[in-house]
């Protein structure tokens, strides 16, 4: 969509027209500056955190390219944007470290700008710190007003000073803005924003706001356009996709949405994340069992195997309920690959609680698991819980858990050795340019001999050797 914009006309009040107006306006400034310095202005968006942020970064890139910026490596870009994450403390530390390194570059390049956005900016303490100690930052905005990026860039150009615009929450979803996809053949698609679950350790509901679902028609329309543009695999994104549609005026279930997406001709693969166990319905399990497009992979974060800890985490399921859910899924979708997230060292976690987690890992036998050391997030209920577990105890549990998770994943992965599976070729292999890398339905990668023209196509690949967490294979002719 690109409504006719005449800059002499009044500034449109409605979105997205207003943003297209500002895109044109920003373009005039950028063109003028490029002429002044006799070269194009360049940008780099660096993403921290989850797939939500990755998708948001594509929207930022789309806007920047429309404005006339060209993409470049971070160390030479005139406009560096960090799209930040704050789910664990170390995510914040990394951003401050990188910012410190940008400062001397900015004093050398008079055209350089630094933008910060994303989840970390939704924390008032962070913004205070930036105002006080990082005055060289040009633009600070949050997760709710990312669609206003062009308007904020214009404010920065016109004011010449630090522009800060953070909203506490929003009930608005702005559709039809530009975006620049990283891959031509696959794409993330937001189906909902925010989270209402308030797991007691988690900061996401505070920085991403209340749960809002996009209208099914808008999602379908977006996917249809993506397919017309060459996309064959979509990843539906939400913090808790299983509660999709509950807050819409005409409620729709996630399973019903999937059935509609399945009908889109030309679309080959559907993935989604993340699923909260408490909302995973029998209807969804049934749809997964009968679908030809939904990949046989489910990311089902367990967080802990101890029912006591799960209660303190506000997760709304017990160890037994989780295991029963896994049983039902495996029965309906044989061979499905299961992955998970686990937190070690939640306040009050005893050795017995930890043993329960190991027990779940051994019983479910995950294809892979992301393991995290509990990180205290100010403002969450868990941060003020007593009995924070000492660092060395947590580290010891973390190492034991990782060992168990990895040895099981290796065994699970080797089960498929020798089989032939369909892979979507994503890239030339990082390690060997005679190989290409393809993604299997179960989300694992296979490297096999092939040329770059295979990128974006599907190949039947024999998995000749399992390397633990990926395969070496050969294409079947
Ligand atoms: N919405 C998703 C998860 C988003 S955050 C879900 O509910 O599954 C991704 C993962 O980060 C979580 O699953 C959790 O395992 C981890 N995480 C969240 N907060 C954390 C914290 N304070 N400390 C350590 N890990 C955390
Ligand atoms: Fe965080 Fe829980 Fe929401 Fe996931 S479901 S984002 S862990 S509060
Ligand atoms: Fe991080 Fe925000 Fe995602 S806090 S994990 S980037 S939703």
UniProtKB/TrEMBL annotation:
Its cofactor is [4Fe-4S] cluster. This is tRNA-2-methylthio-N(6)-dimethylallyladenosine synthase. Residues 41-158 form the MTTase N-terminal domain. It comes from [Clostridium] hylemonae DSM 15053. PROSITE patterns: MTTASE_N, MTTASE_RADICAL, RADICAL_SAM, TRAM. The gene is miaB. Keywords: 4Fe-4S, Cytoplasm, Iron, Iron-sulfur, Metal-binding, S-adenosyl-L-methionine, Transferase, tRNA processing. One of its GO terms (molecular function) is 4 iron, 4 sulfur cluster binding. Monomer. [4Fe-4S] cluster 2 binds at residues 195, 199, 202. Belongs to the methylthiotransferase family. MiaB subfamily. It comes from the Bacteria. HAMAP family: tRNA_metthiotr_MiaB. Residues 414-477 form the TRAM domain. Transmembrane segments: none annotated. Binds 2 [4Fe-4S] clusters. One cluster is coordinated with 3 cysteines and an exchangeable S-adenosyl-L-methionine. SUPFAM superfamilies: Radical SAM enzymes. Catalyzes the methylthiolation of N6-(dimethylallyl)adenosine (i(6)A), leading to the formation of 2-methylthio-N6-(dimethylallyl)adenosine (ms(2)i(6)A) at position 37 in tRNAs that read codons beginning with uridine. [4Fe-4S] cluster 1 binds at residues 50, 85, 119. It catalyses: N(6)-dimethylallyladenosine(37) in tRNA + (sulfur carrier)-SH + AH2 + 2 S-adenosyl-L-methionine = 2-methylsulfanyl-N(6)-dimethylallyladenosine(37) in tRNA + (sulfur carrier)-H + 5'-deoxyadenosine + L-methionine + A + S-adenosyl-L-homocysteine + 2 H(+). Its EC number is 2.8.4.3. Pfam families: Radical_SAM (PF04055), TRAM (PF01938), UPF0004 (PF00919). Gene3D superfamilies: Methylthiotransferase, N-terminal domain (3.40.50.12160), tm_1862 like domain (3.80.30.20). InterPro entries: Elp3/MiaA/NifB-like_rSAM, Methylthiotransferase, Methylthiotransferase_CS, Methylthiotransferase_N, Methylthiotransferase_N_sf, MiaB_methiolase, rSAM, rSAM_horseshoe. Residues 181-411 form the Radical SAM core domain.
